[in-house]
Amino acid sequence: GQIIPERRFVEAINRQAYQYEMGDFPAEWEAWIRKKRKDPPTIEEILKNENYREEMKQKIKDVAEKDKLLQAKEYEEGLVAEPVHTQVKGHASAPYYGKKEPSQDPTSTASTFQPGSWMPPGSGSSHKK
Fold it and tell me: Where are the bilayer-spanning segments (predicted)?
């Protein structure tokens, strides 16, 4: 009286089985294979859902274009400030943030300490005596 669970699989037609990747099958077949649904999908159902997804992609594209035009209009009218483009020049955790050449002065940032470097006298250092 042992119950053997049902095994679901897809036979590869145009490719070897190992060449298939996630997303190659319609979502409805993926759900059936993984036993998320009881019955296998019909061709009509797959086509209907595919058309729906395409319609949604087009609607999203249209809304994004309308939003872009609305933002441009608001920028021109002065209703909204244009976004500022920040240029990153380093990282806050870098011990030499903003320094390009050695200094006689020691530096300390958070838990790090960098001793100053030795410069021979008269080499144009920042310390004048």
Answer: none
Residue 28 half-sphere exposure, CB side, CA atoms within 13 Å?
A: 13
Q: How far does Cα 73 stand from its chain's mean position?
A: 29
Which residues 6+ apart lie within 8 Å of 108 measured at CB? 114
Count of H-run helices and E-run strands, the chain: 2, 2
Mind listing the pLDDT tens digit for each residue in 56-65?
999 999 999 9
What band does 75 get if pLDDT is binned at 50, 70 and 90? confident
Neighbouring residues of 26: CB distance < 8 A, sequence distance ≥ 6? 41, 46, 49, 50
Burial 70-79 (b: 16+ CB within 10 A, else e): eeeeeeeeee
Query: How many CB atoms neighbour CB 31 within 10 A?
Result: 15
